[in-house]
Amino acid sequence: MTVMETTAPTVIHLSGDIDIFTTAALRRQVLGALDDGAGALVLDMSGVTFCGAGGLGVLLHAQRRARALGATVTLTGVPPRMARLLEVTGLSDRLPLVV
Fold first, then answer.
1. What global pTM score does this model have?
2. What does the record give under GO molecular function (predicted)?
3. Residue 18's closest CA among 73, 77, 66, 82?
4. What CATH number is attached to the domain comprising 50?
């Protein structure tokens, strides 16, 4: 018999603008969740109204940290405009999206 231990993913619900004023707090929250042992981190983007370059940088940094820790980061509820941005920049290949 094989017993697999599974844990529910950690979900962070994001809302509003992810810009120069909010990226530091986002970085602390996301990296903190990973450092606290979240093996699977889901970022719910459904409430995000804007994501600037700094926000994309935070998401990529989180993905790199997750890989280093053996964890995953997945985006869900990505608004169409942001999904297009991720696609055009090629970041959709590096940041898994769940529709």
1. 0.88
2. anti-sigma factor antagonist activity
3. 82
4. 3.30.750.24
The predicted-structure confidence for 52-88, as pLDDT tens digits, reads as follows: 999 999 999 999 999 999 999 999 999 998 999 899 9
Task: Please report where in the chains the tokens 């940290």 appear, as a residue.
Answer: 65
Do the domain assignments include residue 5? no
SS3 at position 95: coil
Q: Which has the closest alpha carbon to 41: 76, 15, 16, 17?
A: 76
The total number of structural domains that make up the chain: 1
Instruction: Report the 10 Å Cβ neighbour count for 82.
Output: 20
Choose among 7, 84, 15, 83: nearest CA to 43: 15
User: What is the rounded (10 degree) CA torsion for 45, 86, 90, 13?
Assistant: -10
